[in-house]
Amino acid sequence: MNMQEQMNRAEESILHTYNRFPVVFERGEGVYLYDTEGRKYLDFAAGIAVNSLGYHYPGYDEALKDQIDRLTHISNLYYSVPLAEAGRKVLNASGMSRVFFTNSGTEAIEGAIKAARKYAYQKTGHAGFEIVAMNESFHGRSIGALSVTGNEHYREPFEPLMGGVRFADFNDLESVKAQVNDKTCAVICETVQGEGGIHPASKEFLQGLRALCDEKDILLILDEIQCGMGRTGHYFAWQAYGVQPDIMTCAKALGCGVPVGAFVLNEKAAAMSLAPGDHGTTYGGNPFVLAAVNKVFDIYEKDGIINHVQETAPYLEERLDDLAHRYSCVKGRRGMGFMQGLVIEGRTVSSVVKASLDKGLLVISAGSDVLRLVPPLIITKEHIDEMVRILEECLDEA
Ligand SMILES: *Cc1c(COP(=O)(O)O)cnc(C)c1O
């Protein structure tokens, strides 16, 4: 089958919920993907901020293969060898207190919502407490996660959603204060909004949220699913703000390519929320995915992945700022570390994404007008130069 036939074959059976780009990928190497016809693509999408170590990072495959040879799944009724290490590694990186492993980001959000509700229930004996979420946010597609996602287009067909959610404007502390009342149990936001268009929280906003939550004894939930695991030059983006969440959600790059997420609680939230019987998962944190998580943390430490992001991100920012300066269709740049967005004006983002694909560069969109760059964290200046060269060709065509 050639590539077109493979795409046609897939479309005959797969429910049409994605308008996929016309390419069939077969293998990856480093920061490049190859399609079934042998074409090479520089990957600045990383499977939507998942493949932070690129493809076949030394030692990663071996760790997974070794675990497959031992054991892949046993359920959470028993302990496993990887479980003994993985929790500790997440807590070391975050300075938090307890972790629950899930299969996805969405499920991490569900768990965080339940933990916040339970905290309020423990405190005063009333369930059904309210959550304040942000406009333009994204937290996932399940009914609970969708309920705190501030995007009408995603929400509308599925209403009524979970009740008790109020929306405020991101980076507008007063608008959050206006939604908080004596029924509020938590405020949830991304530290850096991803799908909504790469908006980092301002320092005043995040510090203000922390102070507000402390004052009202409500939980601050920070969604680090996209911006966490080193992408911003810190293990977790909130570490750049001098602010700690009560609950954090993590996924995407946590396993660098295996389906794993987590919600992580500080001591206060852990002590007064989910107890035996309150929450569970069959697959969540099985030995196979946790072997990946353990190897990811080992590689990050041994090879200084986060240092590399800190050292190399200024060059990426400089090159992107230069593009914004030279091209009238690039209105500006936003982002932190290796999570960057270019605001595109005068042509559609999808046309730039498509033109890049045709020239062997993978980039993605965020929101309606942002070109999103979330490369593997192992890219070098040479890869950045190569990306800019291809993007320039695409923008020149405009
Ligand atoms: C991707 C994402 C999610 C959902 O994660 P899934 O693994 O797709 O369920 C939630 N929050 C943020 C910020 C995300 O980027």
Which short descriptors sum up this protein?
alpha/beta; 398 residues; binds pyridoxal-5'-phosphate; Aspartate Aminotransferase, domain 2; seven-stranded mixed sheet; 2 domains; globular; 14 helices; Aspartate Aminotransferase, domain 1
Quick recap of the structure?
The protein has helices at 3-13, 46-49, 60-70, 81-94, 105-124, 143-147, 152-155, 173-179, 203-216, 267-271, 287-303, 305-326, 349-358, 381-396, and strands at residues 25-29, 32-35, 40-43, 98-102, 130-134, 165-168, 184-190, 192-193, 199-200, 219-223, 247-250, 261-265, 330-336, 339-344, 361-362, 364-366, 370-373. With 398 residues, it is α/β, with parallel strands linked by helices.
What can you see in these coordinates?
- With 398 residues, this protein is α/β, with parallel strands linked by helices.
- The protein has two domains: 3-57 and 304-397, Aspartate Aminotransferase, domain 1 (Alpha-Beta Complex); 71-303, 3-Layer(aba) Sandwich (Aspartate Aminotransferase, domain 2), CATH 3.40.640.
- The protein has 14 helices and 17 strands.
- The strands form four sheets. The chain has a seven-stranded mixed β-sheet, with helices on both faces. Strands 1-2-3-15 form a four-stranded mixed β-sheet. Strands 13-14-17-16 form a four-stranded antiparallel β-sheet, with helices on one face.
- Strand 1 and strand 2 (32-35) form a beta hairpin.
- Helix 3 (60-70) packs antiparallel against helix 11.
- The longest helix has 22 residues, at 305-326.
- The protein starts with a helix and ends with a helix.
- The model has no long low-confidence stretch (mean pLDDT 97).
- Bound molecules: pyridoxal-5'-phosphate.
